[in-house]
Design goal:
This protein is an all-beta fold. It has no helices and eleven strands. Strands 2, 4, 5, 6, 9, 10 and 11 form a seven-stranded mixed sheet that branches. A hairpin with a 4-residue loop joins strand 7 and strand 8.
Length: 125
């Protein structure tokens, strides 16, 4: 019912910034909570940040609080993850995901039904 297309990954030095985009089509963001997840090689997938379907609530894991910000542009039907002060341990494939869910968004990947294709973020000098 909704398709997600990601862009914005790449290579950045420690302390640098990247912005990831997650463009939705087929449905409005108003009907979906959007989560950002990441998976590093040999590690479990972990939730990073999320935004509720009404845009009123956001959550981030402790390790990225103060550095990452999730936001949305309803006119563009796009959700963003702004990543600042990047660290080597942020290196991973990042995914956005959608779930038709009321209330606050979860940071649990199994709760989400639709996934973007993923994009590599590499933080290295």
């Amino acid at each position: 019912q909704v398709q997600l297309v990601q862009s914005g990954g790449g290579l950045v030095q420690p302390g640098g910034s990247l912005s990831l985009s997650c463009a939705a089509s087929g449905s409005t963001l108003d009907y979906y909570a959007i989560g950002w997840f990441r998976r590093a090689p040999g590690k479990e997938r972990e939730g990073v940040s999320c935004i509720s379907s009404d845009g009123g609530s956001t959550y981030s894991r402790d390790s990225v609080k103060g550095r990452f910000t999730v936001s949305r542009d309803i006119a563009k039907n796009t959700v963003y993850l702004q990543m600042n002060s990047l660290k080597p341990e942020d290196t991973a494939v990042y995914y956005c995901a959608a779930v038709s869910l009321g209330g606050d968004c979860p940071l649990v990947g199994l709760e989400y039904d639709y996934w973007g294709q993923g994009t590599q973020v590499t933080v290295s000098s």
